[in-house]
Design goal:
single chain; alpha/beta; six-stranded mixed beta sheet; 20% strand; binds fe (ii) ion
């Protein structure tokens, strides 16, 4: 019995160490400059036809080994999305929090190395973690503009800068103008870091209590936006308000505290546009083995025990 336990322990350690090798080789890679948002959007201009796809994720938080290891696993899966040759994937969008905590130079360099491994152009929004202590300057150096629009085939995309949540009057004016311009396109998509409405009752994030939230949702409704993508909350959620679909996709790598059953899992989204129709699929990604053993297994065990022993469980 003792021997079997020993063999099992050695096996778990060996597999865990093996699952760490991609992130170790990432850290040994040389720094690579990556295209800015404008350069990535430029590559989409020659695309033709009305059947295409794009990928969305958020909150990879580069610069922390847990996050980078998980994001590498997401990238490996993303890069295989066109393997059935059914749908061309045009680009990838990141809903922000590209860096771990304070937008450090080293975190931006790690993000550059990571996105260099994604085989499609990457467009990134700014998150609250990317812009602290001079991080906003580094965002512009590495990634470029924080607020802009671009087009791909029959769709208009708007990237909003709401890393501090609130939107200014100037931003509302710009957004209204952009959405009016977008009227000539079949689909309109918005990418922003913080959703105007939290999809999770237990979340500490309560944007819907602020005036900008109602105002921007009414604007999206008026202009018939197809989907608003946001991150910030490290989870997946899919809701419809006023005919607009709001997707929270903050499972790009950061350690997730929310239970899996509530949407707290690593994932990215594949959006399919086929002419007049839009559809999406969620790709749930199992964490790297070492991360499962050291964190995710315990997180789920904690919620399981909480359900059993606390007042919402079977014992009381
Ligand atoms: Fe985040």
């Amino acid at each position: 019995m003792k021997r079997a336990l020993k063999i099992a322990a050695i096996g778990i350690i060996a597999i865990s160490l093996y699952s760490l090798t991609p992130v170790i080789s990432l850290y040994m890679k040389k720094d690579v400059r990556q295209p800015t948002n404008a350069e990535a959007a430029e590559k989409l201009k020659a695309n033709q036809g009305e059947l295409f796809g794009f990928i969305v994720f958020g909150d990879n938080h580069a610069g922390f080994i847990f996050d980078d290891s998980a994001f590498l696993k997401l990238i490996r899966n993303m890069n295989r999305e066109d393997r059935y040759r059914k749908l061309p994937i045009d680009f990838v969008m990141n809903a922000g929090d590209v860096t771990f905590s304070k937008g450090l130079e080293s975190d931006y360099c790690t993000y550059d190395k990571l996105r260099s491994m994604i085989k499609w152009p990457v467009i990134s929004a700014a998150g609250n973690h990317d812009c602290q202590k001079g991080g906003d300057r580094r965002f512009r150096e590495h990634i470029g503009e924080e607020e802009f629009s671009f087009t791909d085939r029959n769709s208009y995309f708007i990237v909003l800068d709401n890393k501090i949540s609130d939107l200014s009057e100037k931003q509302f004016f710009w957004l209204d103008k952009e959405l009016t311009k977008a009227a000539g396109y079949r689909h309109k998509f918005v990418l922003m870091h913080k959703s105007p409405i939290s999809s999770y009752q237990r979340s500490w994030f309560r944007p819907e209590l602020s005036p900008w939230s109602y105002k921007v949702m009414k604007l999206f409704e008026k202009h018939k936006v197809d989907i608003v993508f946001a991150g910030h909350e490290h989870m997946f959620r899919d809701n419809v308000f006023g005919g607009v679909r709001y997707i929270t996709t903050g499972g790009g790598g950061m350690l997730i505290q929310i239970p899996d059953s509530d949407g707290g899992f690593l994932h990215y989204i594949v959006v399919r546009v086929y002419g007049d129709y839009v559809d999406l699929e969620v790709r749930k990604i199992f964490p790297p083995f070492w991360e499962f053993i050291t964190y995710y297994m315990w997180k789920e065990l904690f919620y399981c025990l909480k359900d059993v022993f606390l007042k919402d469980g079977i014992l009381f």
